[in-house]
Amino acid sequence: MTSPPHFTGRDLLCLRGGRLVFQDLDFTLAPGGCLTLVGPNGSGKSTLLRLMAALLKPLRGTIAWDGVALAQDPEAHRARLHYVGHLDAVKASFTCREILSFWAGVRGVADRAAVDRALAAFAIDTIADVPGRFLSAGQRRRLSLARLVAAPAPLWLLDEPTVGLDRASVALLEGAIAHHRAGGGRVVLSTHIDLATPDGAVLDLAAFAPRGDEDDGDVAEDAA
Amino acid sequence: MLRLILRDLRLVFRQGSDATAALMFFVLCVVLFPFGVGPEPNVLTRIAPGVILIAALLAALLSMERLFQGDFEDGSLELLLLSPLPAEGVAVAKVAAHWLVTGVPLLLVAPLLALLLRMPVEQLGLLVGTLALATPLLSLIGAVGAALTLGARRSGVLLPLLVLPLYIPVLIFAAAGLDAGLSGLSPRPHLLLLGGLLCGALVLAPLAIAAALRAAHE
């Protein structure tokens, strides 16, 4: 058994659209840890992140936080995670500052200074009052990432966070991740480029791809 | 939740179109009837309740498709479902904002349109009261349909097919109440039933909407 303050997944099996994505997948993430998901397209990186966010449920296996399965207390889990997906949730008619303070407010942070700090952390303070429709893809992505800093949460789930980012912004993201981990935060991210995550673990999803041409009908069979 | 309602209201004030389009649709729809049926005062008075209710119902439906669509497409809905807010809370906030921008203006315009259709002045209070019960119901029931058709292709066609049959009870009791008022009977029983429907929908619709929103993100 793992010791309590861990974020763990055991024996995970996931089926998407009738296709087996991965099986027998285990992971453990200690406080301050970082897990980088790698693997070819379609190997289930996004799916695993959505499982970790409890947006999806695994067909078999459990994901647990401090030994408590996510399914038992989804609300507590939502309160402790940040998810950055492929979509940036930027409204065309709202300014960067409005968008960020809304998302911070949803998480109970009504502090203007925290929002300003987050804008500065991703170098969007100069465009804070520009409406979303005028932002470039990289700027939108940075605004989406600024949510991570505006309202603290112990678990960051980042689905290809570097898409659209230039080199300088990637460095900002690396800095934010390092700072988050130094404070005991956990990060799970998927990426196709090299993102510096010192002492981070790497999980290659290709290793959990369905073996051979196993029939989907056998999926429900319990391996344990 | 309040924050989400305020955000939605601000969004509507900045972008406008949807809510004003629904209101204009309502006004035009009612105004067209005298041209179609002729200006005979007795006829107009007789059909006024039905015309206003059906126009309100179609106007609500018109604005319903976009209720969750925008947030679904840009990823906001996913983030809201992952926020500490319960999904039911998100549902209630979205419906409340929808009612405030489409239902309430409709309540304000309805008496004027009723006068145009020669409805007696004494009946206007009853009309507004009935609509005050009926429009939140339309928003709640419609939102269930909007959440269910989220992500489906041609949701614009699917949504009315799904929702219009469910609007029938609302239409029946609201029209019966107004008719009773016009013929000098007490509209009370009909309004009580409408109120009962509203209470039921207030509890059940958010649960259904939340479940449908979660399913849309699987």
TrEMBL record, chain A:
One of its GO terms (biological process) is cytochrome complex assembly. Residues 7-224 form the ABC transporter domain. NCBIfam families: ccmA. The keyword Transport applies. One of its GO terms (molecular function) is ATP hydrolysis activity. It comes from the Bacteria. Pfam families: ABC_tran. Transmembrane segments: none annotated. SMART domains: AAA. PANTHER family: ABC TRANSPORTER I FAMILY MEMBER 1. InterPro entries: AAA+_ATPase, ABC_transporter-like_ATP-bd, ABC_transporter-like_CS, ABC_transptr_haem_export_CcmA, P-loop_NTPase. This is Heme exporter protein A. Keywords: ATP-binding, Cytochrome c-type biogenesis, Membrane, Nucleotide-binding, Translocase, Transport. PROSITE patterns: ABC_TRANSPORTER_1, ABC_TRANSPORTER_2.
Automatic annotation (TrEMBL), chain B:
This is Heme exporter protein B. The keyword Transport applies. It is found in: Cell inner membrane. It is a multi-pass membrane protein. Keywords: Cell inner membrane, Cell membrane, Cytochrome c-type biogenesis, Membrane, Transmembrane, Transmembrane helix, Transport. The keyword Cell membrane applies. GO terms for molecular function: heme transmembrane transporter activity. Required for the export of heme to the periplasm for the biogenesis of c-type cytochromes. InterPro entries: Cyt_c_biogenesis_CcmB, Cyt_c_CcmB_bac. It holds the Pfam family CcmB.
